[in-house]
Specification:
The protein has six helices and six strands; from the N terminus they run H-H-E-H-E-E-E-H-E-H-E-H. It is of the alpha/beta class. Strand 2 and strand 3 form a beta hairpin. The radius of gyration is 27 Å and the shape is rod-shaped.
Length: 162
């Protein structure tokens, strides 16, 4: 008579596959999320406009019929509607959408939405989430958005950094 059962003495002849299957499902979910995220951020057909201080007027100017709207995204993720007179702070992308729709209905913006250029100046420290939300809100209103940036060398030169 033995104190240890015979099954424990002989050992197990099978491999437990449950942890390996769990790991494979986790990897599958990770790569699926990665693919969806890449599609969302890369397939948005966003064209960047390079804004240089000496040629900024020629880059953003268009026909006399073209209306230019400047929207700024700060490093904190807040928005500003920039006009010649003052900046209007906006707290959400929905406010940008509502303002675009309101100005379009009042006739401030051209009837042909292609003649309205929405330029978005993005702070280098801004997170992607508020940027993408603003881009999708502007597109939902029916306008094309063009993010503008300052080249790295020009930005450092303006700050006095070599």
């Amino acid at each position: 008579m033995s104190f240890v059962p015979e099954e424990d003495v002989l050992g197990q002849s099978t491999i437990n596959l449950a942890p390996m299957i769990d790991f494979l499902f986790l990897m599958l979910m990770f790569f699926a999320c990665l693919a969806v995220t890449r599609i969302t951020t890369r397939d948005t057909d966003i064209d960047l406009v390079e804004l240089r201080p000496d040629t900024s007027a020629s880059v953003v100017s268009g026909d006399n019929d073209t209306k230019i709207i400047n929207i700024s995204v700060t490093s904190e993720g807040s928005y500003k509607w920039v006009t010649e007179i003052r900046d209007h702070a906006m707290t959400s992308p929905e406010e940008i959408y509502e303002e675009l729709a309101k100005q379009y209905e009042r006739g401030v913006l051209p009837q042909d939405k292609q003649k309205t250029q929405v330029l978005m100046k993005i702070d280098r420290e801004a997170q992607w989430d508020p940027i993408l939300k603003a881009i999708f809100a502007i597109r939902h209103a029916g306008f094309e958005v063009r993010p503008v940036y300052e080249p790295e060398a020009d930005a450092h030169a303006q700050k006095g950094v070599l």
